[in-house]
Give the backbone structure.
Amino acid sequence: MIFPARLPTTLFSVLASALTLRRHPLTVLVLLLYLLLAWLLYNGISGIEYQWRWGRIPRYFFIQRDGEWVSGVLTKGLLVTLQLSFLAGVAALGIGFLAASMRLLPLTAGRLIATGYVQFMRCTPLLVQLYLLYFMFGTVFGMPRFSAGVLALALFEGAFVAEIFRAGYLAVPQTQVDAACALGLKRFARWRLVIVPQALPLILPPLANLFVSIIKHSSIVTIIAIADLTDAARNVVAETFLAFEIWLSIGVVYVAICFPLAWLVRQWELHLRQKR
Amino acid sequence: MKIPIRRPWSIADSIIFLVLVVVVVWVASETAAQLNYQWNWQLPFGYIVSYGENGWVGGLLLDGLIMSIRLMVIGGVLALFLGAVVATLALSPLRALRFFARLYVEGLRHLPPIVFIFVFFYFISSQLFGEEFWRVLLEYSDNRVGRLLLGDLARAENLLSGALCLAVFEAAFVSEIIRAGILSIESGQWQAARSIGLSSIQTLRFIVLPQALARIAAPLTGQLILLVKDSAILSVISVQELTFSAQETAVSTQQIFETWLLAAGLYFMLCASLLWLCKKLEQNKSN
């Protein structure tokens, strides 16, 4: 990982080795590769004779009105994205728990339904699910856009949550449960003292990762015109034609949110693994 | 492993089954009551295949499915190639190269596909290659193989840009899979190969890659499923794949529910067969 402690040293060493060309003769080649890429990018952009206007970007994040700073369109969109992701994440947790229990309990119909649900969600694109849900439940039950978006995301991620729960539970060896039985622990005590403490460290990091990826996946709801970050960006681009600047900023915002979170989860996972 | 004992059918099963039936009936009756919706499966089915004067003809949805499969094949091959290049960079002893690979992987992994597609498709893929490139490419692909792979050559530029876009995005994930596969080969294998006098290229070619390939085949297939699913997003930039043709079908037939259910079913068939392949490869590995 290059974040964040080693980032300055990495950058420095890249620069140093590139400038002095001392350590690796191949560095020249690498430098040429970077130059080639830069040239391709530049060529792509200058092909449409683009005028850069970065100065006009900040006002879409924060704007000064009557001496007060208020949030701009993109910041509002970001808040909608976070709200949507949070609600969908909580709902996905419930749906996933239900589906996982239905698969693990000795039920025939429950297992079939839950397995079918998980397979369907894993094998169809989120976009198609969103259309299906929005056009069906949206029109039939008069469901507002936002709820349809949350529900579609929750159902999609719920399948993955179910798989995580199921894998975590199945990873606790049967011998542990047998030993707990032999010690005379009752059913509830077995869960509280033996199964949950062992399954939880396996379940929590992937769940946290899933929450991070919900933020990413939530961008798809722009298709049904929910005013999230991506949608706000599309609107601003349509109004101002600042396409490059807006899309690059939006990309940076998503990466700036998801990358540190994913990094934290990774560190946490390593920490949990060391403890075991 | 705690596999619970499966009972043939229990009271709880009956309750779950009943709940499902009630929900389905309720949705269907609400649909009929609220919208006066006429279910008509025949009409959208005609957009897959229909029987006319010229015999059986494929419809819009079938064209879309074929286009999706083309995207899968071209995008998959390109992603594999690019991913292998990035994985090589990530494993290189040069820090500058590793840095570039990490930047690529971490940058793309945390970007929503739809944002990437907007950025890449509009500004780069359409400008990256000049008109001359497309003219020459289309000239060369004007044969049987080219038509099989690209379909209608007039729309090939659109298809290839879409496939390239997908490939660049998925290559970030593919490179991580390949890198992990190569790193998972024990160092003893390298040492043993060197000690019997193989060069490092030979070691890679005869010892490491065959073992690594067996390990990464299943995750790569899984990534191919994700590629197919992400290809649905290309419909927003007018690549005429399955989602796009489903949209057109839904508009022209007005049978919205059936069309989207059919489209979902077609995707399901495509991805479920890939999932089956993935499971087979997984079993192959453990044997």
